[in-house]
Description:
Layout: E1 4-7, E2 10-13, H1 14-17, E3 37-41, H2 56-65, E4 70-72, E5 79-81, E6 84-89, E7 95-100, H3 114-125, H4 143-147, E8 159-163, E9 166-170, H5 178-181, E10 205-211, E11 215-220, E12 234-239, H6 243-251, E13 257-258, H7 266-269, E14 275-288, H8 298-306, H9 310-318, E15 323-324, H10 347-356, E16 368-373, H11 376-393, E17 397-402, H12 404-412, E18 418-424, H13 431-434, H14 451-462, H15 466-483, E19 486-498, E20 502-503, E21 519-520
Parallel strand pairs: 3-12, 3-13, 16-17, 16-18
Antiparallel strand pairs: 1-2, 4-5, 6-7, 7-9, 8-9, 10-11, 11-12, 13-19, 14-18, 14-19, 15-19, 20-21
Amino acid sequence: MENKFLRRGCSLMLAGFFHVSPPSAVNQTIDSPSTPLRVHIESEPKTLDPAQATGVREFQILQTLFEGLTRYEPRTLKPLPGVAERWEVSPDGLRYVFYLRKDAKWSDGNPVTAADFFNGWERLLNPKTESPYAFQLFYIKGGEDYAEGKLKDPKQLGMKVLSPAVFEVVLERPVPYFLSLTSFSALVPIRKGTENITQITNGPFFFKSLDKTEGLLLEKNPHYWGVKEVRLPSVQFRPFGNFATALIFYGRTGIDIMTDLPPQQVPMLKFRSDFRSAPMLRTEYFVVNCKKPPFDKVEVRRALAYALQRKEIADSVLKRGDLPYGFFVPPGLPNYKSPDRPQDFAPSEAKALLEKAGFDTAAPFPTLAIHFNNEPDRKLVAKAAAQMWKKTLHIDSRLVEEKWDKYLNTRHMKNFDVSWGGWIGDYLDPNTFLELWTSDNRQNHSGWSNAAYDELIRKAQAEQNVAEREKLFRAAEQILLDEAPIIPVLVKVKNYLIHPYIKGYYPNLLDIHPLRDVYSLRP
């Protein structure tokens, strides 16, 4: 994987600026008081630019490097004071005033200021940045117009530096989860003029080094305001694409946490005392390229959706306890109930829809390319889907497997037929799932656009009545399922291994684990 990441003048050359000694042998596991917490990741991150990151592995690392106005409580994920030690909210819920800690500092000892948050947030919204997460700040007054280039002057945005330690934010409308958003890894401060973003950070750890085999080494930030609460000396994210090799390292305590397990290994590992399983707010699904014929026909997309046997994929293919699921918004969210009509297995209807779209034995369907990234569970699902589409619809498929960075680029460029992936909610609200598929959302890789859907989401976002808001979101999700630009398949269960001496690492729906609060009792 390439180690140099460039974006509009802000470069991140991980391997070029940092280097550590050659990788140690597998059986060398001697610890010292400075032994880092070692976390397994499948591969190097594509980027560590908070405005560009989109993957779980990137956010795992960014949460240790940067801190927002608020931070996550490790068990409940409720917002706690972060860089802001306190805040005030106006009675109408539109104006927030954040008071920054006097001892909040960057890793070089300089103070974190309100101007740094203005700079980081303006950069996220700036159309030149092309951030896939710019929409998280559309709640700010003028945010969406600024991101679209309609508003030119950033001083007209709903955020203002009242003093070096006071940051004011004005919203377009009340947002009940706004303080959770200010904990999110994209909404962090960025110091103006910083060429290499990860060289100067404000979180509990700072970037020390990168080795292609050993991974990323982060050390405790001595200038972090809560440094006395951080009990780990350092954190090492170790990339292993091969699970068998990673398990050897784990067994010899060269890895402390294996954050995810290949599904075929779960039946053999689930009886271990260090095995953990927890539900997640994550839907795994196929996204369909609606801009590419014949997938621009709704009948084709629905035929593909109705030909999948979700229960077989969950129970017989993956075998890790996932929930087969024909909705996009996962269960368990407060004040939300799924719509009436899921995408179910209906082979007769699937065949009829494909014929209606003009495909039969006389006019066969073109070979379908199934796109996925190179993780074991992805390939298993792709193979199973190919067999099901062949059996029910007589569609031939070819598998397109790509490494993580190339996979993300392929999705961004919409250079696929159907692509397998997943989405973890960023906060506990259906909006974090459903706003993805609005016409102008940069995470909408399907190319699908529906004016009625957009309007329902807009109304739901502005609605304060809980019951009416749910009704609007349910109607929107029903359109999404009926139009089928996406084909939800399952809600994932997180399976992982963690040594019993690791404490403070708690299961939660968003799979967020602040490492500032994790510690090791390893002898």
